[in-house]
Amino acid sequence: MRRRRSTMLLLGAIFALLAFFVLYIGLTRAQPPPPTATPTPEAKIQVIIAKDDIPSYTLVKETDLTTSEINASLVTTDTVTNANTVIGQVLKRPYRANPRLTRATCRSRAFRWS
Asked: What is this structure's pTM?
């Protein structure tokens, strides 16, 4: 009787381990791989930049300007996005080629150019 009880106990432990391994393998293989995060592209905005170096107190002409796309997070409220807002105005400071123009550095023509 004692021998039969120990055999049953041993068989129960073996079946329990077997059931554990079957469930473990079945559950780990059934799970899909975790999704990979895809970065969202940042929005771009066209801004007005100086095509060439422009000295200070120069009347801005259309030939001095060009457009460039930059990230929307870099655009400030006074960044010029329409060339017509600065054409015919005078720059308060010199501009190198490629930096974006701001409204704060332009002023309307206060005197007559000859």
From this structure: 0.57
